[in-house]
Amino acid sequence: MGHTGGRRGAGVQSSTQIDGQRELSVHPDRRHSAFELVPQKLIYGGDALGHYQGRPVLVPRALPGERLEVEEIRTARGVLRARPLKVLAAAPERVEAPCRYFGRCGGCHYQHFHAKDQSVAKREILRETLRRLGRISWDSEIPIHAAHPWNYRNQAQFKVEGRADGGVNLGFFASESHRVVDLDACPILSPRLNAVLAALRAPEWSGRLGECREIEMLADDRDEEVMLTLRGAFGTEQGKVLAQDCLGCLPGVVCVATEEEGRCAPQVWGKAALVYAVKEFRYQVSPGCFFQASRFLLPELVEAVTGETAGSLALDLFAGVGLFTLPLAQRFATVIGVEAGERAAADLTTNARTHGLNNVRAVAQTVYDFLRRFAQTSPDLVVFDPPRGGVGARTLELLAALRPKRLQYVSCSPPTLARDLEFLQKGGCHVESIELFDLFPQTYHIECVARLVSKDSF
Ligand SMILES: C[S@@+](CC[C@H](N)C(=O)[O-])C[C@H]1O[C@@H](n2cnc3c(N)ncnc32)[C@H](O)[C@@H]1O
Fold first, then answer.
1. Which pLDDT belongs to residue 457?
2. 327 vs 125, 273, 309, 357, CA distance in Å?
3. Residue 451 Cα, ligand 1 centroid: separation in angstroms?
4. Helix axes 115-134, 414-426, angle to 10 degrees
């Protein structure tokens, strides 16, 4: 673990068979749908785009410029979806995927692609998405923040699937499927989370996880302590015994929450929450609350979002447990953190109090409901870090009416970022800079921070 995989060297490679396991399952009659493809570019979502007989073709685990033999899987809305059979001439950026599950497990998309080149490709995908979906021609620089490309995930949601032999498959969904790929280890997970996964693979656990549907793990910043959330159809007593055994036997596990299907409140065993430190702040994270899932770039991300401005009022919208709220409170006279999740908003209150930050107000509301009633205009800064669906016109309209001086948009989804930025630009905002944080190497996910300033008309 911790390897990056070496480049296979520039130039043409011949007949590299990929995706070998699925190759075995292809019926010979279906091979007539195989054809050669030279993809032109990578698109958001992990696929490469090429053309065959005038039709667009999307293929995973392929790189622009290389020659592949691919096989048609299906056609939907004029787009042909294919899977790679062989690399006939490899791109220089192609590397050997180090993980034996790559191609079957849906968790990673780019292990065949050198990590540095992944970040550069993501930057181009971001530019193109902004242009295509937001009509924003961003030709200025997009600085890339990158870190070690393996063992970075401090959080994971393992799926659990019962097997006919009474055991379970424990891992991630296969791509485009709800079948679970049974994993021994995962090279993007932190060492501690891999140790917990390895322990759960022991025969004595396998038969006991049958009622679980999902096991979520969050490791702390030192990669020592772990919070587990078990979701499933177990009864209260069964959940209690399972949780106590997890606390007693799994390495580093200090807090276990059980969420029974049909019950809204989780039961918590061991410590009530995990504490995660970023820079000088220590954040309490209770079960069920969002916390960032990539550990190496967090201090840089916090600095980029909170570091440059100061003033009297800042709003931190979609605040979670306060990752950005607390550092903002050192620079602004008042900071309001808005978070819809009640437990996360309660953690935010606790976190502010623990740090003696009396200038923080935590509001447990949706951003829309908060903005509908919030009357104070011209905040000096608004930070917003929405889920993948973005902010949307309804909420942005309310935000525009407040006339904020500066905005920091933290986005995990270029398509919704493009849509929202277009709206903000039309409302008189000016995009000042965009930075890319490659929080999730080996996957197609793109995180970025867009800084905006208000023009007078906004
Ligand atoms: C991507 S997370 C960001 C959290 C925080 N900024 C961080 O970095 O830890 C988005 C957060 O928004 C919350 N959320 C989702 N929809 C919301 C809404 N409509 N209004 C307010 N908060 C919402 C989620 O519970 C989650 O905590």
1. 40
2. 31, 21, 11, 10
3. 19
4. 40
Residues with CB under 6 A from ligand 1: 290-292, 318-320, 323-324, 338-341, 344, 366-367, 385, 387
CA of 153 to the centre of ligand 1 (A): 19
What spacing in Å lies between the alpha carbon of 409 and ligand 1's midpoint?
13
Ligand 1: which residue has its CA nearest to atom 20? 366
d(CA 362, CA 322): 9
pLDDT tens string 332-373: 999 999 999 999 999 999 999 999 999 999 999 999 999 999
How many Å lie between the centroid of ligand 1 and the Cα of residue 156?
18
Contacts of residue 193, Cβ cutoff 8 Å, sequence gap at least 6: 153, 154, 156, 186, 217, 219, 226
Could you tell me the two tokens for 306? 């909170």
Q: What percent of the chain has pLDDT over 70?
A: 92
pLDDT in tens, 35-62: 999 999 999 999 999 999 999 999 999 9
- CB neighbour class for 455 (10 Å; exposed up to 12, middle 13-18, buried from 19): exposed
Ligand 1, atom 18: closest residue by C-alpha: 366
CA 319–ligand 1 middle distance (angstroms)? 5
